[in-house]
Design a protein that fits this description.
Layout lengths: L9 E2 L40 H4 L13 E2 L3 H12 L4 E8 L5 H15 L4 E8 L5 E4 L16 H4 L1 E2 L3 H11 L2 E4 L10 H8 L9 H8 L1 H10 L7 E5 L5 H10 L8 E6 L9 E4 H14 L5 E6 L5 E9 L8 E3 L3 E5 L16 H5 L5 E4 L6 H17 L5 E8 L22 E7 L9 H8 L4 H13 L6 H5 L11 H6 L7 E8 L5 H15 L5 E8 L13 E4 L2 H4 L4 H11 L2 H22 L16 E4 H10 L3 E4 L10 H8 L9 H8 L1 H8 L7 E3 L3 E4 H6 L2 H12 L4 E5 L9 E3 L2 H12 L4 E2 L11 E2 L7 E6 L6 E2 L13 E2 L5 E11 L2 E4 L3 E4 L8 H5 L5 E3 L9 H17 L4 E10 L5 E7 L9 H7 L7 H16 L1
Parallel strand pairs: 1-2, 3-4, 3-7, 18-19, 18-22, 23-37
Antiparallel strand pairs: 4-5, 5-6, 8-11, 9-10, 9-11, 12-13, 12-14, 12-16, 14-15, 16-17, 19-20, 20-21, 24-29, 25-26, 25-29, 27-28, 30-31, 32-33, 32-34, 32-36, 34-35, 36-37
Helix pairs in contact: 3-14, 6-7, 9-10, 26-27
């Protein structure tokens, strides 16, 4: 572990830990961190080069040598303590992680919560529970890791560990006022963490332990719903591997299902809302899949449920606005979940469900509609039913309740007369209760809350303040909160204030045509939300609509300025559809009507609470411009454009050229550099003279798609491997982003599979379709006309897990045969003086090519930032950064960009893969890790502000 080059000192920070003596911590210890004063995530804590017996640092009663302590700014610590003693700060303990497979999503949720609740009146301390239920105090910087695996194996050196959950609870009791558990699945929603907090009388947000246990268990919850008079889905419980197949056969028969092919859903009873859920066909397949889940340890109880045909899935957020223990639940505007299928799909794909991948990776496989496209009476029934459930199950503060609206022809529920949920349009039934709803930036919570007037910050703070009402000792802190939501003004309203002194207008543009348009939406949304932290900025999110091949003139492309609630979608197509839907008079009138109903219900309870300062999201409509009109408007209002359009006109110099023509400042490199870097061949040519300075390029062969499709595969393969002098190839689009359509080909048969995917316009190549194991390969849509083939570069495999292989050695394993690793590096600065951030080693978890998820989806992907010294020496690392800066300056990059390359770990030489002038800016992107590794660290909002400032400086 000394290879990770972390500090061997235990660093203390402003507002952080204080030590009275060498044998124990001050009882009020709290690693309180804020955006402005948190340390580098990789330097912050704690002790590394120590014996294994010291690695598990305890918070109480453990001797720590005085020499390992470094106290920083004690005056500030005392000032903050005086504030807290005076009751001016509410101390919130944010707990994430857990043993569930959803712990990666828990990190995403916690990161989002931290971003939006931290403030002068509310201070956040961060904690993490690992898969073995060990508890750690972590820095807020660690929340920006992609996955638990990104830092699980470093926890003993990067975090302050507790020797037991009891000790952890004692610490919380002394250090925070209220806990916000953000653990999805086991230990978070099954009553585990709640029971621990209740035992130590620690206030917390959300439902109590007993009620969590009952609602989380899908089997028990179904029985309770039926008992309460609700329509439920017929189900069969598989418990243990000895379930009698004949009993399951009888259940199939009683529900008129074919025993050989009848469709059912198989899902764990207590594993969360997404993990392990699959479709099965017939008795044998159902029992096999259920037993597989049991044998894999996903759950020891599995439900087999009828597959609901022809219905529409919905989800509804419930927010309690009552006082104390008086429950007054209000159901926000529900969301309809629509599964979509494009292009050629396997027939069984039509039986797909809303699974983990569809829920958390933005693709066109799913779309959301808030409010649902259901009859008004059905929406009313959903809201009424969810409210009743919330009350009858004794839930608290907030929850998410999922269900189905089925067509009237559904004969599954003919025996449900007299049960709640029957309507003239078909039955409404509730299927899942989520005690801790997902809280990622575009989650259902924020989609639905923004539709009725809450910003991210406002709804989260309202939930926390409501939870405080149950605890008399928190009433004083709860009532004096002076946090006033910053109202989100409509595009039309902001024009009135565009000349306001000290305010700077910013347009964040995202979307476009390319296969990375969904990642672009994630990037733009993240930038927009982070820049809203600055009161001197007035930030408008804008969608560059797809061209649909209607015009070759870029300036005539459509751009939509977006109200707050319309940004919070998962695909650009969904945003565009929502814009068109929003301005349709009948739909707009219905949405406004339903919104008013909900806001009136909310205000009936919220008006009684002094901490609620009002709604802060206006019910605005989107505005459509041509790109030319939009740029002229940007010039008129003196806006700076933050470009988050990946690929296409956002990255090939077209948008930059149009903005320059009108004198509008923008982020990122200029026209010439953008054109060069978008063309991977041109990039190699521009760098070909740097070989003697340690910068190498890969030989490439550019081919037309039509040639690949029309020539014999074996002949094509032999020509390529002969020309490039290699045995295996890497194929990628010639002029597209960096993530889609990239595959490793090991033989002519692989080439056939890839060509067929292009010919059939497939959106995805399924996992393990090629000869070498790989994950899902997202394909460009439409398929590229030009493809690049190049030798596949073998790198050394890096393996690690969160488990130690011995008491003193940890899980990072690297054999180092080839001496090459893959890296990605951000560069930032002015033209000619670009600065290299700390490189990250990218680790592929499935296959030889980084998947779209591993690059951009929160909760996936592993990066080692900075590279461990056991792999890359400090000297080689410095050489690498020098070479990266040489590349950036040779290409005349400015603002910021990302360079992907292979690194020779001995010499620091780099072999360039490609340069991205509009890199991913998603919440857990590698650039965030690298910015946090700077000195001083740059948190995301500061990082994006820096990029904005560089754009303005260039324009002067």
């Amino acid at each position: 572990m000394d290879s990770l080059a972390f500090s061997s000192k235990l660093h203390f920070l402003r507002g952080g830990i204080r030590l009275y003596d060498t044998v124990g911590w001050k009882s009020s210890f709290a690693p309180r961190m804020s955006f402005s004063d948190s340390p580098n995530s990789l330097e912050m804590i704690w002790m590394l080069n120590v014996s294994s017996s010291c690695l598990k640092t305890r918070c109480f009663g453990v001797g720590v040598p005085r020499s390992t302590i470094e106290v920083v700014d004690d005056r500030v610590v005392e000032d903050e303590e005086k504030q807290q003693e005076a009751g001016r700060v509410l101390r919130v303990g944010l707990i994430c992680g857990g043993p569930s497979a959803e712990r990666g999503i828990s990190l995403n949720s916690a990161r989002s919560v931290l971003d939006h609740i931290q403030g002068e009146d509310l201070h956040v301390s961060c904690y993490y529970i690992d898969y073995e239920l060990n508890a750690y105090a972590i820095s807020s910087a660690q929340l920006y890791s992609n996955t638990p695996a990104d830092f699980d194996f470093k926890l003993e050196s990067l975090a302050l560990g507790f020797s037991s959950l009891s000790e952890f609870a004692e610490h919380l009791a002394a250090s925070v006022d209220i806990v916000f558990p953000v653990i999805h699945g086991r230990f978070g929603e099954d009553g585990g963490i709640q029971e621990l907090l209740e035992k130590y009388n620690i206030p917390f947000v959300g439902t109590g332990s007993k009620e969590c246990r009952q609602a989380f268990d899908k089997h028990y919850a179904s029985l309770e719903l039926s008992k309460q008079g609700f329509i439920t889905v017929p189900s069969f419980l598989v418990k243990g591997s000895k379930t009698d197949e004949s009993e399951l056969s009888k259940w199939f028969a009683s529900n008129q299902l074919d025993p050989n092919s009848g469709k059912v859903v198989v899902k764990p009873a207590v594993a969360g809302s997404s993990i392990g859920v699959t479709v099965a066909y017939g008795v044998a397949d159902s029992l096999k899949k259920a037993n597989d889940l049991i044998l894999e340890g996903v759950d020891d109880k599995v439900l087999v449920e009828i597959f609901l045909e022809g219905g529409s899935e919905f989800t509804a957020i419930v927010f309690d606005v009552g006082s104390g223990f008086d429950c007054h639940p209000v159901v926000l505007l529900p969301t309809e979940v629509e599964l979509q299928f494009h292009g050629n799909v396997d027939v069984r794909e039509k039986d797909a469900i809303f699974n983990y991948r569809r829920k958390y990776l933005p693709t066109q496989q799913v779309a959301y509609h808030t409010p649902p496209r259901f009859p008004v009476d059905v929406i009313r029934k959903i809201r009424e039913g969810a409210s009743l459930l919330f009350q009858r199950l004794h839930l608290r503060d907030f929850a998410r309740i999922d269900g189905w609206f089925l067509p009237p022809s559904s004969n599954v529920f003919l025996t449900s007369d007299g049960k709640f949920g029957r309507t003239d349009f078909g039955p409404v039934l509730f299927t899942d209760i989520n005690l801790i709803s997902g809280m990622e930036q575009t989650s259902f919570l924020f989609q639905q809350a923004s539709k009725v007037g809450f910003s991210h910050s406002n709804i989260l703070r309202s939930i926390i303040h409501h939870a405080c009402l149950r605890f008399p000792n928190l009433v004083s802190k709860n009532s004096i909160s002076n946090h006033l939501p910053r109202r989100s003004k409509s595009f039309q309203e902001t024009e009135t204030f565009r000349k306001r002194e000290g305010t700077r207008k910013v347009f964040v543009i995202f979307g476009g045509d390319t296969s990375e348009r969904q990642v672009s939406l994630m990037s733009g949304t993240n930038v927009w939300l982070n820049l809203q932290a600055f009161n001197d900025l007035d930030v408008t999110p804008c969608l560059l609509a797809p061209s649909n091949g209607s015009s070759s003139d870029a300036s005539s492309r459509a751009v939509w300025s977006l109200p707050y609630s319309l940004v919070l979608r998962h695909t650009t197509e969904e945003v565009l559809d929502a814009c068109i839907e929003a301005i349709e008079p009948a739909r707009a009138a219905l949405t406004s009507h339903l919104r008013n109903q909900v806001t009136n219900d909310l205000m009936e309870g919220l008006k009684k609470h002094s901490w609620f300062k009002g709604f802060d999201i206006a019910d605005d409509l989107p505005t459509r411009f041509s790109l030319e009109e939009w740029i002229k408007l940007a010039k008129e209002v003196e806006a700076t454009v933050f470009i988050a359009v990946h690929g296409g006109i956002g990255e090939d110099g077209t948008l930059q050229s149009l903005l320059e023509a009108e004198g509008v400042p923008y982020t990122g490199p200029g026209v010439a550099a953008s054109k060069t870097c978008m063309d991977k061949v041109a990039t190699s040519l521009a760098l070909r003279n740097l070989a003697d300075q340690g910068v190498l390029t890969i030989n490439k062969e550019v081919c037309k798609k039509e040639d690949l499709l029309n020539k014999p595969a074996l002949e094509f393969w032999n020509n390529l491997t002969s020309t490039l002098q290699c045995e295996t190839l890497c194929v990628k689009p010639a002029r597209d982003g960096c993530s889609t359509g990239v595959a490793r080909l090991c033989c002519a048969d692989d080439l056939v599979v890839y060509a067929k995917a292009l010919r059939d316009c497939l959106l995805r190549i399924p996992p393990d379709s090629l000869s070498k194991a790989h994950g899902m390969i997202e394909m460009p849509s439409p398929p590229p006309e030009l493809l690049i083939f190049e030798p596949f570069i073998e790198t050394d495999e890096i393996v690690f897990s969160s488990k130690s292989v011995s008491e003193t050695a940890h899980c990072l394993m690297w054999k180092g045969h080839s001496r090459w690793v893959e890296i990605t590096v951000g560069v930032i600065g002015k033209c000619g003086s670009m600065h290299s951030l700390s490189p990250s080693i990218t680790v592929k978890e499935s296959g030889a090519i980084l998947s779209l998820e591993e690059k951009f989806q929160g909760g996936t992907g592993i990066n080692l930032t900075p590279p461990p010294t056991s792999i890359v020496s400090n000297e080689a690392l410095e050489n690498c950064k020098h070479h990266i800066e040489l590349i950036a300056n040779t290409l005349q990059l400015e603002g910021f960009s990302r360079i992907d390359a292979f690194l020779n770990v001995d010499s620091g030489e780099v072999l360039v893969i490609e340069v991205n002038t509009v890199p991913g800016m998603t919440p857990s992107t590698v650039l965030v890790h690298q910015a946090l590794a700077e000195q001083p660290p740059m948190y995301p909002h500061r990082f994006f502000r820096k990029l904005l400032d560089l754009a303005l400086e260039r324009s002067k």
